[in-house]
Amino acid sequence: MGEVRAQMCRPLRKDAERNRQRILTAARELLAEQGCGVSHDQLAEAADVAVGTVYRRFPDKDSLLEALFEEDVDRIVHIARAALEIDDPWKALVTFVTRSLELQAGNRGLKEFLMYNVTSGTMTSCRARLLPVIDELVARAHVAEVLRPGICSYDLGMIPLMVGPVMDGCREVQPDLWRRSLEIVLDGLRPCPERYRLSAPGLQAEEFLEVMRSSHTSPTRR
Amino acid sequence: MGEVRAQMCRPLRKDAERNRQRILTAARELLAEQGCGVSHDQLAEAADVAVGTVYRRFPDKDSLLEALFEEDVDRIVHIARAALEIDDPWKALVTFVTRSLELQAGNRGLKEFLMYNVTSGTMTSCRARLLPVIDELVARAHVAEVLRPGICSYDLGMIPLMVGPVMDGCREVQPDLWRRSLEIVLDGLRPCPERYRLSAPGLQAEEFLEVMRSSHTSPTRR
Amino acid sequence: MGEVRAQMCRPLRKDAERNRQRILTAARELLAEQGCGVSHDQLAEAADVAVGTVYRRFPDKDSLLEALFEEDVDRIVHIARAALEIDDPWKALVTFVTRSLELQAGNRGLKEFLMYNVTSGTMTSCRARLLPVIDELVARAHVAEVLRPGICSYDLGMIPLMVGPVMDGCREVQPDLWRRSLEIVLDGLRPCPERYRLSAPGLQAEEFLEVMRSSHTSPTRR
Amino acid sequence: MGEVRAQMCRPLRKDAERNRQRILTAARELLAEQGCGVSHDQLAEAADVAVGTVYRRFPDKDSLLEALFEEDVDRIVHIARAALEIDDPWKALVTFVTRSLELQAGNRGLKEFLMYNVTSGTMTSCRARLLPVIDELVARAHVAEVLRPGICSYDLGMIPLMVGPVMDGCREVQPDLWRRSLEIVLDGLRPCPERYRLSAPGLQAEEFLEVMRSSHTSPTRR
DNA sequence: GATGAATGAGCCTTCATTCAT
DNA sequence: AATGAATGAAGGCTCATTCAT
Q1: If I label A109, which of A52, B53, C59, C198 is the partner at 20 to 30 A Cα–Cα?
Q2: Which residues bind DNA (chains A, B, C, D) (predicted)?
């Protein structure tokens, strides 16, 4: 919110911009380590500015989280583009998902943000940036028939949500355990003609797509 | 801890037991709605007792959460037993998982508890109660060759973690959306001979089992 | 207070008396170690009775402290009597004071009680029991002219107050340091003809005695 | 601690300094009356600031007590310096001790602080400020042979501890009664060649000094 | 704009005391 | 009489947010 206005109005004064960067840098590190619960005071101290400055730049915690998240999305877009270079469409998809999750693995704040913002406006706008690339990854896989029919980009979008808690819960035990759960999910995305079907299957693809699209155009606010 | 003693020593006095139930009832509702962050004061007010009473019965938040969780585990054990009555081994497994998740769907507190207690002692003891039954479900499925080789009970244990955030994130959009993600995971558990394999697969079954078992015998303390 | 009534009315029932003793025994130990700040719950637990029982027997903390103090006074009277057996009047006095303080040295609760009850009714009645014996010690010393003229029993009564804080403050450094301060005080009690005098001396003996006596007949209540 | 930083870094902002003074003023009064047990809430109300402000300035009770105590020490140093102006070495000593105690007489908090901080770091640093001046008072008295051989500054340091409880205990009876006990102690400090000796004297001077010095260089932490 | 002090609500916890069982 | 559960005031502390400097 506050962020948006700042970007619209005019470029920030030089020192203000420098402070903004300091805050972002400090916040990135702190949030990755300690999650979204860090206090404004901690942030301010780490950034070596006063609390008031944090508030001026990021009127609420969300606007800060969003700014950080935007940067993460940049990287994920980058990963997705890189994956498009891979010839094997399934391998491309797997590479994209795996790389994205590795990004998320060490970043506690990011996982929390994802969990509490599935339907937020920020998430919607970020999805808008990601969807074209992911759609292409998905489309290629469908053409090659290496993806279970009916799977769409939104299904991929759930994966970070699903794997995050496994990362957190198992880190102490074995930091890579999440890869096993991911493998199961990826297997679940594969086509498998002779597979048994649940008698009462969940949402079918068309219905699912409609629900997701409508929700993201006019996002539900909590 | 405090709870344990109460259960070991002798039945509570009648009035005490009544208050204990009041607290549990209020807590169940509050936690389901608002998550584990509810304060002792809120609990006391909702249960219509004084704070001190809450503290007497549940000296720390954990002991309360654990009491509630025990009840949930009771139900899940029940669900698992009921599933064993189903002839079709795959259907039994699916039914168990689905019913368990339905239990969890409306309960924010339960989901949070699961996420933050993967390696806790409580979770370990609860797992000890659940594992025998689940093991049987899994064994039957393996015998019938309807479960991907290498899948074990611990893999099933990750499912609540994985589906929880999808439930939360999508509730506002469409409360049943998680069933679709679950379907993907369940498909991932199916055997599929001709399936492609990831070039760099995650933990293999044997290694995985060893890690999980060792961690749960002497659980890592946070 | 409550104590008094209990003693007046009738002998306690046997189990009640047994509980009373348990409480006193536990309290003696706990208070000696931890001072007067121990909670009723601690006391009850240590005595292996319920809090309510502590309250029934000793309606307020003071009545318990007083009961314990009575016992201490018994011992001090005993010490004083024993000191009267010593021929050298000065040595008798010194022995009495030193032994009393040794009693007090390991008893944090006793020191605190003394400090907060100088003018209490209990203290007054205890003093009444002690005074005759101490008076005799003092009188003998005066006759032998080994005590500075004007010193009276009440002056001796201040010594435990004075040495207590030295005991507490220096225990960690050297548990016997208080003996040095005591020595100074004892030296101050000796006659010393050629001694300089303070230009503005404090209360003179007669006045002092009068003040003390009047205060102790009808003790000021805080 | 919190205090220290404030004093080191830079002068406080004007409004902050004003609040700090308010707090100190209120605290001085409250502590003098009610002892060190006053709560942060009481302090805040008396100072007409919010609790948070008290905490910001004095993160723990100790830092507040220390700030107050520093001021008291300032005054005592002043008194000691003034005493050095007095020609008669004994009279100088007596004046110093008496004036210091008068400062302490009406201040319950100060007495408690002294009693519970004999070996604290604060006390050690304060002693460091006082010792030079007191040493001079003591040295002059020794040269003039009006002080019992072996008495040192540390012995004088015990006097406030000793007289404090007498002040408290007797205030209601007669607020000046402590002067009589002080007189005894002062007499104990006088030289007196023909005086009897205790058969088993306490710590001798050399040993005493060593104990005290070592303890105050590296103070024992409670 | 930046600063950081002040605010005060709100959480956690303990404990003296009462009173139903 | 004994028990021990319940009460609730009170103290300790933190932190998001505002606003004077």
Answers
A1: A52
A2: 39-58
